[in-house]
Amino acid sequence: MTNRLEIRAISKRYGKVTALDGVTFDVRGGELFGFVGSNGAGKTTTMRIALGVLTPDSGEVWFNDLPITHETRTRIGYMPEERGLYPKMKVLDHLVFLAELHGMGANEAHRSAENWIVRLGLAERRKDEIQKLSLGNQQRVQLAAALVHDPAVLVLDEPFSGLDPIAVDVMSEVLRHKASQGVPVVFSSHQLDLVERLCDRVGIIRNGRMVATGTVDELTAHAGTKLVVGATRGWATGLAGVRVLSENGTRTVVELDDGVDDQSVLAAALSAGPVTEFSRQRRSLTELFRDAVTTGAKA
User: Which residues form the ABC transporter domain (predicted)?
Assistant: First the structure.
């Protein structure tokens, strides 16, 4: 059976404040799911409900087509945004301890801990206390802590925060590998270019509500077409259905209304002089996110 985590119509209130309002999405086995939103949008609350740290006012969390239980929650690997490590414990001892807490025998726990220490580039720090590590290496240990018990699901809150580019590459490769093994992986991040590059699907949350879910291509499929045109300056002035987004020398970026033929745009540019560039430009996740959180457009 392919592992699958489902968040089903989760709502949570704190007094008069609605933290979550019917949040629904699923994370399928073998995929990386990027969970993005502004600070305070509800990402961490959703993750804590999935883990059983918080109880929803309504809605359910399901795993493999059944309501999640304490036993199945022990199969989740969780990496919190805030540091969740014992600062005076040594790296190896800490990971072995956590693996044993999840039910591994001593030998298996040591093998798993040593494996992740090597894979995450921590071999030279295995005997160091956590508090003596750089913030980036502490982040690597936190990922190892989420992985050491061979989880069936990974839930990661801002796992790339504070990492240098090399560490980002290492962590990205680990997450891809776990997904390739059929593990559902969901992580939040404010690094939207990274989310766009890594994730199979994306969910955008705004003020406790999901406003978009799907692949980046799906979410931008009905967005206005953008064109990059290298032509005589001012060629697009007054052209119906064409909005100039930016103009830098002879390079102009325009967005077309629905139904506008890009060939008519090319003809207009050519009528003004030579055209040295004419290409489509896909909307980025950053642009999609900006629109979603400011307009609240439904998915």
Answer: 5-232
